What we know:
This protein has helices at residues 2-22, 33-36, 40-52, and strands spanning 29-31, 68-73, 76-85, 103-110. The chain is of the alpha+beta class. The chain has a four-stranded mixed beta sheet with strand order 1-4-3-2.
Amino acid sequence: MEQARSTSRTDRIRQLNDAHRANIPASTVFITSGIASLTPEAQHAIIHAVRTFDAFTLDNDPWKEHDFGSFKFDGMTIYWKFDYYDLDGMHGAEDSSNPTVTRRVLTILLADEY
């Protein structure tokens, strides 16, 4: 029973993360100074790549939550990752599978900024 509940929770987190990435709300995405220093065209292409990222493997997604990704863009390695906060953004979320109590924040950065 515990395994089924865990899988269901993981499935829900993955679905929420995929939906959030596909329709990135401006209020919950941060780009680092490295990404901001790129041309608007490059930024647009990177955001598009984050939105459509689907190269998940056991190596880059061991928990199957689709909460991190990396890809190459114009010779640079780009990372994106989710962090989960309570609704006021002051503390970590207690249950990242519950969107009524969780604020997802997506950060897009150059790998060398990590």
